[in-house]
Every structure is written in structure tokens, then in C-alpha cells.
Specification:
The protein is an alpha/beta fold. It has 6 helices and 5 strands. A 5-stranded mixed sheet has the order 2-1-3-4-5. Helix 5 packs parallel to helix 6. The N and C termini lie far apart (57 Å).
Length: 217
């Protein structure tokens, strides 16, 4: 074998080694990094009597459930979730915006506007709001005196139902800007205030809640 052939073989071997190393670093190492960053907090010493730090507050817990419920909504423009909670922090009902039971999600429109200006070609005459669904999903438990966590400040129609059901407190996540929104939200503020309900904006204690379906412990 000539020196030229040996040089070519050596060069090929080096190139193959580099390519293999690159492949390992690109396909294997990132997975290890991802799994380590997604891994749950390492368990402490089994003899440590102290409770775990960094657990969810009640407010973050219930608003997190409302936000998770919103992910069930098929509405392509706005997903809203709600969680009805008793004064002693027991979940009574959850809901999200969607069409009534038995009404196909594929046979009714999800659009916000109609090209022919026909309101029946929009979602508004048909959709049930998250707040209403949460109240109706309580298995006959009374909503009187309870708290309602909702991802978006309720409109005036929902405010009426909230008041009539006896709910005493509304905690919302986001709100439309009142200077540019329609009158339904201005009326909602007025109704809730006149009825004496406590209304407050959720102040999260955590930046985010990560939920994974991996089996790591």
C-alpha cells in the first residue's frame, strides 16, 4: 500500500471520527440537557423533617387549574377557563368556553365576524362562557359565598349570572383595556361593584408552572 493510500485512509478515519463525535453531541447531549432541565426537583434527605419549599400557593393553584381548563376550549380566537372554589379551598366546578352539550363543535361556527354581517354565522349566539360552565358543573353544590377564578374578566352577561348565583369573590387573570373595549365589560365592572362582590386581579407568586408527562421521579 502506497503512502498516498495510507494518507487517504487516515484522513477518512479522522473525518469519520469527527462526524461521529458531532452526531453524538448533536443528538445525544441535547436530550440529556433537556431531561435534566425538565427533571423534577431532587428529593431531599428522607430523614429531613422540613416541608418542601416552592409549592404552589392556593391562588396560583386555582388559577393554574383555570388556565389548564382553558386549553380544552376549541375556540381558535380566545380560550377562557374558570374554577369555582369554596371558602375552605375545595374545588366545586371547572369550565371553559364552548358550545352546549350535544351541539357539535363541527356544525356551528367559531368565527368572530360574518362576511355577510349575519350574527348567526358567528360563535356568539351559541357559545357558553367558561364562568357559566363552571357554575353549572358543580354537581348541584351551591355557588353562594364561593370564589370564582377566571382567566379573563367576565363580560356583563356572565357578571349577572355570577351575581345571581351568590358568588362572593371573583379573581381574574387578564382584563380588556376599558378605554378601548365595548360596553359589556364596563357594565360588568359596574354590576359587580354595585352587588358588593370582591373583585381582584390575580398576582402570581410563580413565573410559570411546568407540567410534563414524562415518568421521571
Amino acid at each position: 500500500m502506497s503512502s498516498r493510500d495510507l494518507a487517504l485512509i487516515s484522513a477518512s478515519a479522522i473525518a469519520g471520527a469527527i462526524a461521529s463525535a458531532f452526531a453524538v453531541s448533536f443528538f445525544v447531549l441535547p436530550k440529556r440537557v433537556r431531561s435534566s432541565t425538565n427533571r423534577k426537583q431532587k428529593r431531599c434527605c428522607p430523614f429531613d423533617p422540613a416541608k418542601r419549599q416552592g409549592y404552589l400557593s392556593w391562588d396560583d393553584y386555582f388559577m393554574g387549574i383555570a388556565l389548564l381548563s382553558a386549553e380544552r376550549s376549541k375556540d381558535p380566537n380566545r380560550q377562557v377557563g374558570a374554577c369555582l372554589v369554596s371558602q375552605n379551598n375545595v374545588i366545586l366546578g371547572i369550565g371553559y368556553n364552548g358550545f352546549p352539550r350535544g351541539c357539535s363543535d363541527d356544525k356551528l361556527p367559531w368565527s368572530k365576524k360574518s362576511k355577510t354581517n349575519n350574527p348567526l354565522e358567528t360563535k356568539y349566539p351559541y357559545v357558553c362562557h367558561a364562568e357559566v360552565n363552571a357554575i353549572l358543573n358543580t354537581n348541584h353544590a351551591s355557588a353562594a359565598g364561593q370564589k370564582l377564578y377566571v382567566t379573563m374578566f367576565p363580560c356583563n352577561e356572565c357578571a349577572k349570572i355570577i351575581i345571581q348565583s351568590g358568588i362572593s369573590e371573583v379573581i381574574y387573570f387578564v382584563e380588556k383595556m376599558l378605554d378601548n373595549c365595548d360596553n359589556t365589560y364596563i357594565a360588568s365592572h359596574k354590576l359587580l361593584s354595585l352587588a358588593g362582590l370582591k373583585v381582584r386581579k390575580h398576582q402570581p407568586q410563580m413565573d410559570k408552572i411546568l407540567i410534563g408527562f414524562d415518568d421521571e421521579s
